[in-house]
Amino acid sequence: MAPPGVGPGPDPTVPALARQWPVGTRPLVRRGYEPPAHAYGPGHRGVDLIAADGAPVRAVAAGRVSFAGRVAGRGVVSVELADTGDPPLRTTYEPVAASVSQGDEVAAGEVLGAVEPSGSHCAPCLHWGLLRGDVYLDPLSLLPPWLLDSGPSRLLPVLGVPLPEEHSGSRP
């Protein structure tokens, strides 16, 4: 399930094959995926993740770099994900100063580049997108539920087991 307020939730047609976020360990989602009503309609075709300038950007899954260059003055990296059907899934990352080149094979977690300073719509952030062919999908769908949990793990008390005694710092 997607974190509150960040889009419609996972797409059941997308395999949850990512094992990490593209930036950080659990970045804040500044703006979620908002699918357009039609191909050229308004919407938000990806998610904006809070990320500092210079932060490493990592491939969320194994694949081949299908593009690494500049589009409209911003650095963009796109990775075609391995074994994800026909047409394959493709992730996009921007603004990124790429450290990879078109055609490079990348492993999950491999650094693709660094978040570059820009006049982006969400600076400082990383815009992360997902497509199958020309159709945009929610990139959060690539993450398994355990990576989407918004809170820390919590241990619950075990019934019938006494709580440990509190110590004031002195020993009896």
From TrEMBL:
It comes from the Bacteria. GO terms for molecular function: metalloendopeptidase activity. InterPro entries: Cell_wall_metabolism_enzyme, Dup_hybrid_motif, M23ase_b-sheet_dom. The keyword Signal applies. It holds the Pfam family Peptidase_M23. Keywords: Signal. This is M23 family peptidase. It comes from Streptomyces parvulus.
